Amino acid sequence: MTGTQFSEITSKQDQLKSLYYSIYRQDSSDSFERLLKVMATATQARPAALQMVDQGDPHWYMSNKLVGMMLYTDLFAGNLEQVAAKIPYFKELGITYIHFMPLLKAREGENDGGYAVADYRQIDPRFGSMEQFRLLVDQLRAEGIYVCLDYVVNHTAKDHEWAKRALAGEKDFQNLYLMYDTDETPRHFEATVPEVFPKVAPGNFTYYKQIKKWVFTSFYEFQWDLNYHNPAVFEYMTDVLLYLANTGVQVIRLDAIPFMWKELGTSCRNLPQVHVLLKMFHLIIEMVCPSVVLLGEAIVEPHQIVKYFGNDDEQECQILYNAAHMVNIWNSLATRDARLMAKSVKYGFHIPKSGCWITYARCHDDIGWGLNENIIKALGFDPSAHKQFLISFFKGDHPFSFSRGELYEFNPETLDARNSGSMASLAGLEAAIATKDMYQRELAIKRILLINALLLAEAGLPLIYSGDEIATLNDYTYKDDPKKAHDSRWLHRPFFDWARAENRHILGTAEGQVFSAMQQLIKIRGEHDIFRSDIPSKVIECYEPAVYCFAKYLADESLIILCNFSDDRQLIDTHALHSVGIFGSKTDLITGKTVDFTNDRILLGPYEYVWLEGRS
Ligand code: GLC
Question: Domain 60-157+229-531 class?
């Protein structure tokens, strides 16, 4: 170790210590020493090959060559061994990052799609073994594919060994969770803590007769919230974090981070202590395995999400989901009006240099309508009426809707709901096929391609939800499975249909149209550094509500992106673009056609998008 490295580590250790003592008692010095020991052991256990990887570019995740896919191992391929056999498929599309949805051993029976973990050190035997996983990660790395693994940090399954010992009455293990002898404290919490699943798992506590205690269960009854007030929890969870990092994964997705710290009288969401915990995780990773990156899952209000990046001096998660952008995309399609999206990006938040958004349109979860209400009001709409419109539009009820979806967590009293559905069904393909309407089918495909063209051009790491690349429709069979029927998120979690995927080679099919277009977009993105995630998108006002326009600049190169969110043609007055320095003729990287900005107007067809390259 060089002198600089040594002094860097000592200063990081000092930072860690001061963060640690800002939430844990000063007299807990033994526990801090134990934490350092955990880190030292993990450093020693880090395989030499990974130590080499640690020497590489710390901002590797900003690369324009990175395009991700998230998938459920069992639904996609059966098991880990079979995933390995699908490497040619990833390469064909251009995927260079795979997020494996929960792989660690989940509880038997209902397990919230694997988010109820019974053992953090074992791969669920349904998928394979830890040894097979390590081999797969190595194999994927050799092919230039990075791996992201889920780490459920807020709760364990009630079947985890710690919970079982707590249930057996062991005090030390009961202290790892938040449990109370009477319902007095739970009642006080309930007064201020919102419910996550009000319909399927109401309330935040569950009473266990066996131990006569009320346990904090923010999600399902079988998911017990960990007690981070207890330094032992932080130590154990750090130990697991480093164990997972040493398997060779490059990204660790920390699940449900806003919930990690609870205080009476608060909403128990996004509390300052959560940020301390994440800053500590970040420093620990930097000291032990610096090439590993933290992806935070914080699907909360946009101004809260952005805080999980930390700042330039004290970082937290390098990658976060851009949930606000995701809902803005769906809003633009339903309203044929991209102004909310444009204004949200334009007046969006500053993010630290190391921060990177995941840009996505669909994932395994529902769509919760966390829109920027101030902008909606400024545009002249009533936020709650607008939300009701979106809920009904994406369920397919609204008379103008092209969508097919279902409600998630519908509240009959407030009429509030979220929406479930696959990208293709929400974009209109299912309805078009059902009504045999060829024109609507074409529009639906154009919408799917528009979404992808936007995601692949925006600043951020694009993440494709497995199946969307072959226009997978909703799967209603979950209703026949009693373990899934109550949770409409299973509507968009079907088995990957490999027979349908074969159609990707046949151009006239929906699979072929979507797959080949995405393949081309991914290839172009990888060839131009201007698509790097750290090059910001600059929104350009083009005075056509349906058109979203933004630019990117790198040295003397420029890229102008135009996306028409309407099924009508749009004529854009070029004078608005001249005023921000866009002149001359530019070439569309996708079609090769030339667009001449010296003309007074530019025409965009229904849902047309262009990626215009030129010199600035
Ligand atoms: C995250 C997951 C979601 C799960 C929840 C509880 O939000 O994305 O699917 O239900 O955590 O673990």
Answer: alpha beta
